[in-house]
TrEMBL record:
Region Disordered, residue ranges: 1-29
Organism annotation: Macrostomum lignano
Ranges in coiled-coil conformation: 30-66
Protein's name in the database: DUF4094 domain-containing protein
Keywords from the UniProt entry: Coiled coil
Biased composition regions of type Low complexity, renumbered to the chain: 7-17
């Protein structure tokens, strides 16, 4: 360590430090060569890794684009499916409204039918009563007519019996 500060050591140190490009045959030259070899290897390794990173980045970009294209296709299919479902829901809503309208109409018609049925039942009863009354009237007329016919027949018989026989 003391040699460093001595004059002899100074001249050797100045040659190594001052003449970095010059080959003095000292221990630093071998170290420097080894470091330069290592540095060159490291630079090649870094360059190779940069190329690999660039390739990987390109592959990743391609994969992302492919994934985006797949997702885009899926998104398109999903959008069409959503539109189909929206149309189906709209149609279902329309059918539900129509069925409600038909149900209300059917209930109204059932009420009208029940009222008409009651009216016709009443009419039928009324007609049955009128028919029975008519039968009674017709029976009375037939009885009277038969009585009149019998009376006329008996009068006719009496008159023929009481009439003198004609002589021609």
């Amino acid at each position: 360590m003391f040699q460093r500060f001595t004059g002899a050591a100074k001249s050797g140190a100045s040659a190594a430090v001052g003449g970095a490009g010059a080959s003095t045959g000292g221990p630093f030259d071998a170290e420097r060569a080894e470091l330069q070899v290592r540095l060159a290897e490291q630079e090649r390794r870094v360059e190779r890794q940069r190329k690999e990173a660039a390739e990987l980045a390109g592959k990743m970009a391609e994969m992302r684009l492919e994934q985006l294209e797949r997702w885009g296709g899926e998104a398109g299919r999903l959008w069409r499916r959503i539109e189909e479902m929206r149309l189906t829901c709209d149609q279902a809503g329309r059918l539900q409204r129509e069925s409600t309208e038909w149900r209300v109409r059917a209930e109204s018609l059932q009420e009208t039918l029940a009222k008409e049925s009651q009216r016709w039942v009443g009419e039928r009863v009324s007609l049955q009563f009128a028919s029975q009354q008519l039968r009674l009237v017709v029976d009375q007329w037939l009885d009277r007519f038969q009585g009149a016919v019998e009376e006329i027949s008996s009068i006719k018989l009496e008159s023929e019996e009481n009439r003198p026989a004609r002589q021609d």
